Amino acid sequence: MAEPTKMTEPHKGPTPKLTTTGGAPWPNNQDSETAGARGPVLLQDYVLLEKLAHQNRERIPERVVHAKGWGAFGTFKVTGDISKYTKAKVLQPGAECEMLARFSTVAGEAGAADHERDVRGFALKFYTEEGNWDLVGNNTPVFFVRDPLKFPDFIHTQKRHPRTNMREPYAQWDFWGQNYEALHQVTILMSDRGLPQDPTRMNGYGSHTYSLWNDAGERFWVKFHWKTQQGHAHYTNDEAAKIIGQTREGYQEALFGKIEKGEFPRWTLQVQIMPEMDADKTPYDPFDLTKVWPHSDYPPIEVGYMELNRNADNYFAQIENAAFSPSNKVPGIGYSPDKMLQARVFSYADAHRYRLGTHYEQLPVNRPKCPVHHYHRDGQMNYDGFVSGNNDAYYEPNSFGGPLEDHGAQEPPLRLEGNAARQKHVQQIDDYTQVRELHDKVLGAEERTRLYANMAGTMVGVPEFILARVFGHLHNISPAYAEGVRKALAEATGQPAPAPEPDLVK
Ligand code: NDP
């Protein structure tokens, strides 16, 4: 890796010679080729044309979600022992591997301010000896929706209105009130944890239920949690507004600056493990992304830690081009029936094919650090040529020594049952109890007051019938919750807040 540029003094010593992109020496980078000093320019000035054409192509499509991000490289180390649950080499005692992390906001575009209240993406790529393992989560253990069919609609409510071209709180509350499983995530978003001071001061969560499987073919359900070792720290909306007035890049400054100074941030990896058959017994659906597994039921087990200790040398090449996808898993780690996870296995890899191209995994930052052998061929930007390693064995099966299946990587069957149909997730869904636990027991009185004010601040101007629906559900979570937000809204507007929708109140 090249030494980072030192910009404090002019360079002394030899410099490379400028060339065209074709490699030919280039004598003059100051003057276009013109007929006379005034111009016009000649069409044969190919270097001018190429320079302008390249500039037009400097941007790639930004991510539809998680466009604004901050990333760094690091190390993952296993200090605990969960070998009885998984055969994954990356999770065996003492294992160590290189990794990449990218944190992000969800809704803002690539130029958005860092210190906005939003869920933070927490995307990790582990370059393991058995291939890349990506754990692509958020700084929250749950999500807004449990069914991927709702995901594009949900994201539309977070993005700009087609006519006003502004983000519209009415759309967000309209959606959340009609998909009230979202109120668990909304509560976390509007609580202190919705605005971390910088990426190092927040937890990360795999959020989905994944599975682990061992050499004996036993499967266990698993949740991954990354606990910040820097401690949680948050800003209020007012504090963040002041920071945004001074810098829109506060997260980048903090993450890049800490790593440059040698203050390497760390997170402890914990897992919650559920025996396979327990999934039929829990009062909540353990595959529902809007629910947590209570720690008292499945206590967190310490596995190891990750440390971020190297900044990227080229942000575009290594962070913008980084492609994380839950489709990247290694033997010993598997999926679960979680509908959202199943959809992300497709949609994340597909997003990268669109954004970066079919062969995005050939880019250096995405390239596994172990040998890669497959029979995919050709296509734009396939600079690897032919990765089976043998040009005569360009199909499978073949008799000419091409790569063969590795039966040791066969995971145990995933138990699935039920009739195929469009149907409710489960017959009796309780979308209130876990939010009540959070509101009544986890949040302290002062944090609850800030939660109410944060929520009320986003409700100003939202039509009453939309808010009445939301208050109906907040009441069912906890009457004190609905009252707290209604009072804060009344203070913000000077008007009485709408009453909870009577048809909804239980
Ligand atoms: P516990 O008391 O065992 O755990 C509470 C959890 O809440 C801790 O993980 C803590 O994180 C986290 N927490 C503290 N403040 C906030 C906040 N403002 N926003 C979100 N999370 C916060 O309780 P349970 O496991 O029974 O869960 C109770 C509720 O806590 C859940 O319904 C859920 O809303 C929330 N929660 C649960 C998690 C889980 O995996 N069980 C994870 C995170 C939240 P930390 O340890 O980092 O301080």
Produce a short descriptive summary.
This protein is an alpha+beta fold and 506 residues long. It has 12 helices and 10 strands.
Helix content: 25-40%
Q: Label the overall shape.
A: globular
Number of helices: 12
Unreliable spans are none
Q: What structural class do helix, strand and pairing data support? A: alpha+beta
Terminal residue distance: 62 Å
Instruction: Tell me the Rg in angstroms.
Output: 26 Å
CATH architecture of the domain at 69-146 and 201-362, by name, is: Beta Barrel
Q: How many beta strands in the DSSP annotation?
A: 10
CATH topology of the domain at 69-146 and 201-362: Catalase HpII,  Chain A, domain 1
- CATH secondary-structure class of the domain at 69-146 and 201-362: Mainly Beta
Q: From N to C, what is the helix and strand string?
A: HEEEEHHHEEEHHEEHEHHHHH
Q: Find the CATH superfamily of the domain at 69-146 and 201-362.
A: Catalase core domain
What can you see in these coordinates?
By secondary structure, the protein is an alpha+beta fold. Among the domains are: 69-146 and 201-362, Catalase HpII,  Chain A, domain 1, CATH 2.40.180; 432-493, Hemocyanin, N-terminal domain (Up-down Bundle), CATH 1.20.1370.60. 27% of the residues lie in helices and 15% in strands. The chain has 12 helices and 10 strands. Strands 1, 2, 3, 4, 5, 6, 7, 8, 9 and 10 form a 10-stranded antiparallel sheet that branches. β3 and β4 (131-138) form a beta hairpin. The radius of gyration is 26 Å and the shape is globular. The N and C termini lie far apart (62 Å). The mean pLDDT is 95. The structure holds NADPH dihydro-nicotinamide-adenine-dinucleotide phosphate (NDP). NADPH dihydro-nicotinamide-adenine-dinucleotide phosphate (NDP) is lined by residues 141, 188, 191-193, 203, 227, 292-296, 434, 437-438, 442-443. NADPH dihydro-nicotinamide-adenine-dinucleotide phosphate is lined by residues 141, 188, 191-193, 203, 227, 292-296, 434, 437-438, 442-443.
